[in-house]
Amino acid sequence: MKNRLAAGLTAFAAALVLHAGPAAADIESVTFSGFGTLGVVRSDAADLQFVRVGTEAPGSGRLNFGSDSVLGVQGNFGFGNGTEAVVQVLARHTPKHDYIPRAALAFISFAPSPEFTLRAGRLRVPAFMLSDSLDVNYAHSWVRPPVEVYALNPFADLDGIDLLYRTRIADVDLELHPYFGRSRVDIAHYGHASLSRLRGLNIGLSKGPLTLHLGYSRARLDLRWGDPEFDRLQHALGAFPQGRLMLAEMQGNGASASFTSAGFHWDDNRWQLIGEYAVRRTSAFVNSASGWHLTIGRHVGATTPYLRFARNRQSSPIVSRNLSMGLPEIDAFNASRNNGQRSIGAGLRWDLHPNAAMKVELARSRIENDGWGAFYPRGDILSTRVSGRTVNTLSLSIDVVF
Amino acid sequence: MWSSDRFGSPSCWIALLVVLLALGAHPAHAEEVLIVTARTGTVETLSRDEAEQLYLGRRATLATRISMLLDLPPGRTRDHFYRTLTDKNPSQIRAYWSRMVFTGRALPPKEAADAGDARRLLLENPSAIGYLPGRYADDPELRILLRLE
Q1: pLDDT at B14 over 60
Q2: Quick count: other Cβ atoms within 10 Å of Cβ A299?
């Protein structure tokens, strides 16, 4: 349904553009631009594969091109008087194992004054500090923003409205960003989840080299898992009353979810320091967890070597211990949906061209004893041990903007 | 492995690399950059705060409407302009703008082919703002809104 909404908005924007011929509202300006990443990740564990977010479809090869590679093309259509339409089409590996492009942005914006911009249509869910530019790797020093924080919210598309209020108080730039709408995401292989009545507020403060971010949002969460292992579990649990109680915690409708984050970004031409703390609280279907990352980087000519630390930690599992009665199958279900891990990464961004950056990162991740971290078995799910392991990953990518 | 006798000592190579990287980071040139508009244009004043907000996409226009914000192609004047006005280096500016554009917040300034082209566009569009190197200071057809050193 929301896809139809996005398609409708895209068509609306396109219609505005096409009909603005001799008669209708004139397009004052048209700008096309784009961004892309070709990235590959390899882990040193032959039986495990890196996954960027839990909803991702795991591949089968030793080299994973699906996690980071992305291509986006955008058109900005200005109609004058502060009215603009923006359409961004984005292709990246989907949980359904294809690269079918989707509308990542399709909105009409109106700026009644220099401070206010009102936007309606397909927008980004700005849950955390860098959520709205998660696909634009060129904007960041890392190969990808740390998964320990960003896997906490896989919802990317906001179908709704938002308001950007930007002003300057003394020498501090303030951005207030309230938003409202809904979001839907596919889950590998045939599952899906949605956030409805999603409402949130972000506050951004910038002064010279320092930017601070605070964000809070909450929504109603509906979720259906969609993989053969879960189907088998569901079938088995459905056969007895206690099992059905467990199932009600695993998937269904009407859970509540909230996302809170606080972060900072310092960049003074020599040093780059980035940190963020984020919390996800849910009443059911996904675990409650928190994550943080801290990065220190140094600009040396056209390169930025960096060191980053990150952790994702579960505060309560999907099915509580009281309810699961220690059943190994439930423990396995909980663990496979717990991204808990800590990692250290050393990497380098090299601005090799005004429109291209090359990045490399070597990371060492210690997966929590009751989680799967950012990894997924390449082979048989039941016989592969993921929890408690230490995995090294090497990531290479080239980002371009055009 | 590194073979010292074949390629020279590693420390020589590291020293060379450091020198090359240092050369890559140009020191700021003590050169003036002017933020200008057409002499006959509608924009009469511009504060440094407003200029910084405009060139960082944090506001789209002024109280007096701006029809066009002009940029110069990558090079010394542009690098010096952004360093002076925003304290950001060229790659920081590009990364910053990619975030602004692809989150749908703002569009970057329009890039002129060169300073002469920027001057031509300024004269053709009376509510346009741009920046030019200091040698345009005495141009009778331009109004200087701000001097950046």
Answers
A1: no
A2: 23
CA A110 – CA A132 distance, rounded (Å): 19
Residue A30 confidence class, pLDDT cut points 50, 70, 90: very high
Q: How much is the mean pLDDT over chain A?
A: 93
Here the CATH number for the domain that contains residue B89 is 3.40.190.10
Neighbours of B77 (CB within 10 A): 20
Whole-number Cα distances in Å, A5 to A9, A154, A157, A289: 6, 20, 12, 31
Of A111, A136, A139, the CB nearest to B60: A111
Angle at A40 between CA A185 and CA A300, to 5 degrees: 110
d(CA A316, CA A304): 37
Q: Is the dihedral of CA A230, A236, A238, A241 positive or negative?
A: negative
The answer for A 102-141 residues in CB contact with B (under 8 A) is: 105, 107, 109, 111, 114-115, 117, 119, 123-124, 132-133, 135-136, 138-140
What per-residue string of b and e applies to A326-350 under the rule 16 or more CB within 10 Å gives b? ebebbbbbbbbbbbbbbbebebbbb
What's the pLDDT at B5? 45
Residue A220 to residue A357: CA distance in whole angstroms: 39
CB contact under 8 A, B102 and A139: yes
The verdict on residue A243 lying in a domain is yes
Note whether B140 contacts A: Cβ–Cβ < 8 A: no
Report how many domains make up chain A. 1
The answer to whether residue B3 is domain-embedded is no
What average pLDDT does the structure give for chain B?
A: 85
Per-residue pLDDT tens for B87-131? 998 889 999 999 999 999 999 999 999 999 999 999 999 999 999
Mean of the pLDDT values across residues A107-117? 93
Domain assignment of residue A102, yes or no: no
- What are the tens digits of pLDDT across the range B58-88? 888 888 888 899 999 999 999 999 999 999 9
Total domains in the fold of chain B: 1
HSE (CB half, 13 Å, CA atoms) of A143?
A: 26
Q: How far is CA B34 from the centre of its chain?
A: 11
Range of the domain at A268: 36-69+125-401
Please give the pLDDT value at position B12.
55
Residue B109 placed within a domain: yes
Looking at this predicted complex, what is its ipTM?
0.91
Residue A140, domain CATH:
2.40.160
For residue A15, the 8-state DSSP code is H
Inside any domain, residue A161 = yes
User: CA–CA distance from B37 to each of B66, B67, B127, B145 (Å)?
Assistant: 10, 11, 7, 7
CA dist., res. A241 & res. A244, Å (int): 5
CA distance A211 to A293: 16
Question: Per-residue pLDDT averaged across A114-141, rounded?
Answer: 96
Structural domain includes residue A167: yes
Contact list in B for residue A124 (CB cut-off 8 A) is 103-104
Expressed as residue numbers, the domain containing B46 is 33-148
Indicate whether B112 belongs to any domain: yes
